[in-house]
């Protein structure tokens, strides 16, 4: 990137830019040249059949998987092989996983405090204050001293969200945040994500929760076989899908 | 029953005490070496490099296959020559004591077992633990120290307790290289007083006592490492919220 300290419209620069991104596993192309731009503050929902490359796509954004070709730019930082660049990008990007990935030997509070203390140089007291504030945001301040195994699935996922928030990222990635949860816990987690969506953070969420997508998404993207097949605003996306593949997919999940 | 005078008995007991101290020093030093080496090797063997994997297989088959006594003798009698070959003139002047040879030999042999345990435990950790740490931009060194290894220790603890017990029982081998440890001192006392039964049983009791103390400690440690692993009693979501 050319440094532009006095850029006229910084908001015009996308939060995330993917250009012709390819990811291969052996001979298989999990991403077959994906182009995608996400505006600052935009809420994007990605859906698509199993194995279509949704997880691969968002995991390439914070370099949990390294892309083989194409260009990825996150908040103006071009993703390269340089470890420092990767760390810079991960500071900007919070991620929430399907299986929470909380650290089981640390309490909810300690899970939230670890990264800010290391990466943002906070004192123990500052990190604790920050962590409690974010646990409060996901309505779990009263569970802060519990270990993950003592929390319900929905509570664990909300702790994982708070943990990501403690890095105060400008971008949040969610990979099927509710698909490992019992049905009665899905609502509390989606509710928290909806509240976050109102805060102006940029968000990409892989999910098949269509009601959530309609309420929250500015734009929906449908992936199949490593490609983006169709995209559009939520209403049009669900009511008037253009491609046969999306119609077929919607028919299956709404059945 | 016995013609052992009190003064003699006190003398032998002092010697046994000194021997016990040496045994404990040998044990702790070699366990520490085995632990540190084993953890480092265990982590290193997870690298995808083929050279490292091949080197690990050779290391494991040597030290898991060759009797510890042979390794002790090899280092005690052959160590000076080896050091001379590696370090030249300077190495030739290093004298290897029975104690040093014992620590090196037991440490290296048991590092292979510790490495195997650590390696297995790491492979059993969900991949999500590494990914969670990486996504939070936690640097690799701290990820290992704060996130991965504490969980690995919990998983490997039963195996490590076994290694601990085996190593303790193997320490008397070093007396065959001339170390005046507890068993060597017992042998002298038993021979001189013609009271083998009393002295050997007493020494056996010392080992049993130490072993019992270790197990008690291991249990406490297990409770500590298990913090957070017990699942909550089943409650309805409404109660859990409260
Ligand atoms: N580590 C890996 N090694 C080999 N192949 C992989 C790996 N990870 C993913 N794949 C393959 O890449 C393709 C895309 O996988 P990905 O996980 O991105 O799909 P997904 O859309 O997230 O599916 P799901 O809805 O099941 O989570 C799949 O065909 C999968 O088998
Ligand atoms: Mg997936």
Number of strands of chain A: 10
Under CATH at level 1, the class of the domain at 25-179 in chain B stands as: Mainly Alpha
What's the CATH architecture of chain A? 3-Layer(aba) Sandwich
Oligomeric assembly:
heterodimer
For the terminal residues of chain B, how far apart are their CA atoms? Answer: 72 Å
Largest sheet of chain B: none
**What does the radius of gyration of chain A come to?**
18 Å
Helix-strand sequence of chain A:
EEEHEEHEHHHEHEHEEHH
The CATH homologous superfamily of the domain at 25-179 in chain B is called MetI-like
User: Low-confidence segments of chain B, ≥5 residues, pLDDT <50?
Assistant: 232-242
CATH class of chain A: Alpha Beta
Distance between the termini of chain A: 46 Å
The coarse overall form of chain B would be: flat
Q: How many domains is the backbone of chain A divided into?
A: 1
Mean pLDDT of chain A: 92
CATH architecture of the domain at 25-179 in chain B: Orthogonal Bundle
CATH fold assignment of the domain at 25-179 in chain B: MetI-like fold
Q: Would you tell me the structural class of the helices and strands of chain A?
A: alpha/beta
Provide the β-strand percentage band of chain A. Answer: 15-25%
Shape of chain A: globular
* Share in β-strands of chain B: under 5%
Subcellular location (chain B): Cell inner membrane; Cell membrane
Membrane topology (chain B): Multi-pass membrane protein
Pfam families (chain B): BPD_transp_1
Family (chain B): Belongs to the binding-protein-dependent transport system permease family. HisMQ subfamily.
């Amino acid at each position: 990137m050319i440094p532009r300290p006095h850029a006229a419209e910084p908001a015009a620069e996308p939060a995330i830019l993917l250009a012709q991104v390819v990811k291969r596993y052996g001979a298989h192309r999990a991403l077959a040249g994906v182009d995608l731009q996400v505006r600052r503050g935009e809420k994007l929902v990605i859906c698509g059949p199993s194995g279509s490359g949704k997880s691969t796509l968002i995991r390439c954004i914070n370099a949990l998987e390294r892309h083989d070709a194409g260009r990825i730019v996150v908040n103006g930082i071009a993703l390269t092989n340089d470890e420092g660049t990767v760390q810079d990008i991960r500071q900007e990007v919070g991620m929430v996983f399907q299986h929470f990935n909380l650290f089981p030997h640390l309490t909810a509070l300690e899970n939230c405090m670890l990264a800010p203390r290391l990466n943002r140089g906070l004192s123990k007291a500052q990190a604790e204050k920050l962590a409690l504030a974010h646990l409060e945001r996901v309505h779990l301040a009263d569970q802060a001293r519990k270990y993950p195994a003592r929390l319900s699935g929905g509570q664990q996922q909300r702790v994982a969200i708070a943990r990501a928030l403690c890095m105060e990222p400008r971008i949040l990635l969610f990979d099927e945040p509710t698909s490992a949860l019992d049905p009665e816990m899905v609502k509390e987690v989606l509710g928290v994500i909806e509240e976050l969506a109102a805060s102006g953070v940029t968000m990409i969420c892989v999910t098949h929760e269509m009601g959530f997508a309609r309420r929250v998404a500015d734009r929906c993207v449908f992936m199949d076989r490593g490609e983006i097949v169709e995209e559009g605003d939520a209403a049009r996306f669900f009511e008037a899908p253009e491609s046969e593949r999306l119609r077929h997919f919607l028919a299956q999940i709404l059945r | 029953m016995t013609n052992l005078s009190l003064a003699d008995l006190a003398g032998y007991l002092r010697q046994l005490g000194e021997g016990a101290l040496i045994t404990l020093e040998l044990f702790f030093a070699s366990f520490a070496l085995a632990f540190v080496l084993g953890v480092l090797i265990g982590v290193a063997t997870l690298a995808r490099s083929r050279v490292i994997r091949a080197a690990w297989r050779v290391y494991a088959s040597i030290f898991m296959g060759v009797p510890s006594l042979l390794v002790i003798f090899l280092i005690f009698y052959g160590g000076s020559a080896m050091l001379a070959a590696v370090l030249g003139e300077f190495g030739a002047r290093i004298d290897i004591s029975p104690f040093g040879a014992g620590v090196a030999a037991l440490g290296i042999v048991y590092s292979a077992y510790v490495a195997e345990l650590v390696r297995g435990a790491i492979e059993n950790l969900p991949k999500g633990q590494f990914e969670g740490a990486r996504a939070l931009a936690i640097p690799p060194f701290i990820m290992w120290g704060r996130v991965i290894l504490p969980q690995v220790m919990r998983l490997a603890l039963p195996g490590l307790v076994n290694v601990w017990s085996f190593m303790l029982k193997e320490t008397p081998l070093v007396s065959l290289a001339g170390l005046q440890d507890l068993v060597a001192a017992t042998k002298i006392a038993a021979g001189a007083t013609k009271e083998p039964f009393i002295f050997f049983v007493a020494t056996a009791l010392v080992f049993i006592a130490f072993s019992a103390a270790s197990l008690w400690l291991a249990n406490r440690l297990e409770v500590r490492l298990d913090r957070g692993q017990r699942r909550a009693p089943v409650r309805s979501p409404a109660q859990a919220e409260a």
